[in-house]
Amino acid sequence: MKLLKRPYKALAVLAFALASLAISAPRANALNPPYTKVVLFKWRTADIGTECTNWLGPQGYGWVQTSPPEATISDGYWYDMYQPVNFKSLTSTIGNRAQYQAMISACHAAGVRVIADVTVNDMAVGPGAATDGSSYDSATLTYPYFSSADFHPDTSCTYSSESEVWVCWLAALPDLKTESSYVQGQIEEYMELLLSLGVDGFRMDAAKFQPYADLETIFAAVKAVYPKTLEGNPLYITQEITPDDTVDYSGYEGVGAIQEFEFTYAMEAAFRNTGGETLSSLPAMIGNSTSGGGSYGLLNDSSDMEIFVDDWDTERNNGGSLTASDLSGNTNDAVGNYRYDLANIFMLAQPYAATATVESGFRFTNGNQDYPSSFAYINGVAQVPATRTANCCYDFIHRWTDISNMVKFRIATYGLSEGNWTTGTNNQVAFSRGSVGFVALNNDDATVWNKTFTTGLPAGVYCNVVHGGLSGGKCTSDTVTVNSSGQATLSIPTNSSGTALVPAVAIYTGQVQ
Question: Distance (Å, rounded) from C-alpha 439 to C-alpha 506?
Fold first, then answer.
C-alpha cells in the first residue's frame, strides 16, 4: 500500500485527526465569504498577517494569496520566487516556516483564508545557493531531493501539441516529470506540509504545463490525507492556464477552478478602447454575465472561474492588461484618468465568476525590478501614503477606497442577477444587481453623464461607496437619493476631469444613511 511505503503519510493522517479535534469547537471568528481574493505580491509573511488583522478581515476580503513560500533563488528580480530549489524548506525571501504559520493563524482569526501560490512544474536555472542555503545546479540537474532522472529532456516550448507543452522547458526552467510517482510524492509532501500549517488552498502556477491527469492524481493523494483543511473546509484549488489553441481547458475543470485570462484581456480592451471595443461592448465581449461566452469566449461554468483585472505577470507585459501604474511602459492607466479603478469596480460589481481577485503589487521603475526596500510595514507601521497621486500608492491597491469598499458590495449582491443595463456614450454604463445594488461608471474623457437612472433599489439616501461609507450613521462622502420609483438622478464627471474623485457611483442596501 502507498501509505505503508510512505510512513510520513501516517503521521500526517494522525496530525490531521488531532487538528480536526481542535477545530471541532466553534471558531472565535467566522471566515468572511470567499468571494473576493487579494494578492499581496511578495509581501513579507509577517506583514500579511498584520494586514489581515488591520484591514483585510474588517473589509470583508475572503482570501489572501501569498507568493510561493518554498526555498527559491534570490537574484534581485521579481520572478525569483518562481524558481524553486527545495520543496521541503519554507525559508524564503518572504519569511520562514514559523512566520508562515503565524501569518495563517492571524489571518484566520481575522476571518481571512490563506491560499499559497505554488510552483511545482519546474525548478531553478543555474548553479547557486537558495534562500535556505540549499545548493543546486541546473547543468547537472542536481537539487535537494531531485536528480536528472526526475526531469524531462531539455526542449524549448513550441506549443505544437498538448503533449509537447507538458514536457517542454518553460523559459528554460528544468521541467519536472510530474508523471513520475516519485516526483508526485515530493509535490504531495510539499502541499501536505502547507496544509499542516493551515493553508486553505493552492494556486497552481503554470498549470497548463502539467498534464491534468497528473494534477488529478496528486490532489487525490493529498485529499486522502487532508479530506478537509484544518479550518474544516474543502481544499480550494485554482489554476493558471493562459489561453492558446494548444491546451484544452476542459480537462483542468475536474482539478479545480480556472483563472480566466480572457476576462482580463476584455477589461483591457474595453477600458482602453483598443480594437474598437468600449464599455458598451462588454455584453457582447464577455457574454452572459453569469455563464460567460461572448466574443472573448469566457468559460461557461462561472462557479468555477476566478477573474482579475491584472496580475504580476500581465502588468509587466506591455499590452497584457490594465495596470495601476504607467511605469511598466503601458498606456497611462493611473495618470490623469481612472481606467484601472473603473475596471476593478466593474469586476467587483458584475456577477460572473465565483472569485474576483484584486492584485496589490508594488511600484517598479522597470519590469524586472524586485520588491523595493521600503516594505509595506516598517516596525509594525503600515507605509500607506497620506495622499494618492500619479504613480503613488501602488503597494496598497487593496486599500484604495473605491476598490476596497466594493468588496462588501460584492458580498451583498453575490448571486443576484444583473439588470437595468444602461448606456450613455459608448464609455458610460450602469446596471443593477437584483434589488440590492446599483453601479454606474463613466470612462468617457469628454462627456459628463447626466441622467435619471432606474436603480431597482428601495427608496432611501445611500452612501456612494466609491468615495466613502457610513460612519456614525452618516455618509462620509457624497450620497445618492433613490425615490419611491427606484430612480436616482446623477451627474458623473468625465474620466479626465482632473478631480480627485473616481467617476463612478456604487450604492447598495447595506450603506443607507
Answer: 4
pTM: 0.93
Provide the strand spans (E) within 209-344: 236-239, 257-259, 305-308
Whether 474 is covered by a domain: the verdict is yes
pLDDT digits (tens, 9 = 90+) for 254-293: 999 999 999 999 999 999 999 999 999 999 999 988 888 9
Whether 33 and 246 have beta carbons less than 8 Å apart is answered as no
Q: Write down the catalytic residue from 70, 214, 240, 306.
A: 240
- 436 plus 493 within the same structural domain: yes
Burial classification of residue 267, based on how many CB atoms lie within 10 Å of its CB (0-12 exposed, 13-18 middle, 19 or more buried): buried
Q: What is the DSSP letter of 55?
A: I
Residues 491 and 374 in one domain: no
- Containing 221, the helix (H) or strand (E) segment is helix 212-225
Question: Does residue 22 register a pLDDT over 50?
Answer: no
Instruction: Let me know whether 139 and 197 are in one domain.
Output: yes
- pLDDT tens per residue across span 53-112: 999 999 999 999 999 999 999 999 999 999 999 999 999 999 999 999 999 999 999 999
At which of 350, 377, 411 does a domain end?
411
Q: For 107-132, write each residue's pLDDT tens digit.
A: 999 999 999 999 999 999 999 999 99
pLDDT, tens only, 479-507: 999 999 999 999 999 998 767 789 999 99
Give yes or no: 205 in active site. yes
Q: Which of 126, 127, 117 is nearest to 92 (CA)?
A: 117
Choosing from 70, 117, 150, 205, the catalytic residue is 205
Cα of 83 vs its chain's centroid, Å:
20
Asked if the structure places residue 30 within a domain, the reply is: no
3-state DSSP call for residue 301?
Answer: coil
User: Which domain does 484 fall in, by range?
Assistant: 417-508
Q: Do residues 317 and 168 both lie within one domain? A: yes
CB 37 within 8 A of CB 115: yes
Query: Do 138 and 159 reside in the same domain of the chain?
Result: yes
**φ, ψ at 252 (rounded to 5°):** -80, -15
Taking the C-alpha atoms of residue 241 and residue 457, their distance in angstroms, rounded to an integer, is: 38
8 Å CB contact between 360 and 396:
yes
Structural domain includes residue 513: no
Are both 83 and 173 inside the same structural domain?
yes
Residue 476: inside a domain:
yes
496 vs 504: CA distance, rounded Å: 13
For the record, the C-alpha cell of 43 comes out as 509581501
The answer to whether residue 200 is catalytic is no
The residues with which 39 forms a beta bridge, in sequence order, are 65, 359
Element (H, E) at 42: none
Neighbours of 145 (CB within 10 A): 15
Distances (CA, A) of 226 to 68, 194, 233, 260: 20, 11, 10, 27
